[in-house]
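Progress against Task 2.4 (sequence-to-structure conversion) is shown through the following example record, which the project officer requested during the mid-term review.
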Amino acid sequence: NITVDSLFDKNANIIDVNETFLRMFVLKSKEEARKYMLEDFSHNKDIRDELRPTLLTAYFGEPQQFEWKAQRPFDNSVFDVQVNIKKIDSGESKFILATIRDISDQVKAKEELRENEEKYRLLFESANAAIFLMTDYVFVDCNQFTLKLFNCKKEDIIGAPPYKFSPKFQKDGESSKDKAKEKMQLAFQGEPQLFEWKHKTFDGKIFDAEVSLNHFSLRGENFLQAIVRDITARKKAEEKIREKYRKNSGQTAT
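Structure tokens generated for the chain above:
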């Protein structure tokens, strides 16, 4: 990131700037820079009344920091900066030292992250499947479809472990609690999981589900995303096909 220093008086008139300031704002010389006031480098041309109290606060001894949309007089191009201002004493004179740091990359990254989170939230809420987010082996979020599928309220889910919504044992006789922990541990280790599962609604109804587990990181935290689809109708259809096949096989044998 580019950082520049400049000196102003209490009225925001430029007294001195460094070479980096000239390059940042595309100015030819310090003499040219002195033709401007601090607010002349702002994208917001009405900033004067807002900026003046901040400058005076710094001038009388309290350092200030703020983010700002800066603008180059040369071509009116706009970029994001962080400004730190503080008082400088030089003999009997006082000045304001402004340190300006270009933060365009950070602001752009934050904006992209915000947009991605908004897109994910939209997909999350509009999905035609139950979606859970887990960390530390408990649910921390879910979408609206989850509440419909499990016939419950959000507060019934948040903070609960996944096996709370399962019968005590799975179809193969294994403990739901032990088997769920095993699947989650593998997913946390980076091995995506896809499996069938016996789930239980909040009011005790058992249903067949297909579950996928995937690990992801967000802002330094590790999460699991669980997508749960009710496959009861599919399982019944498969059972009818198997039953029909068994009957046909029996008739052929006789």
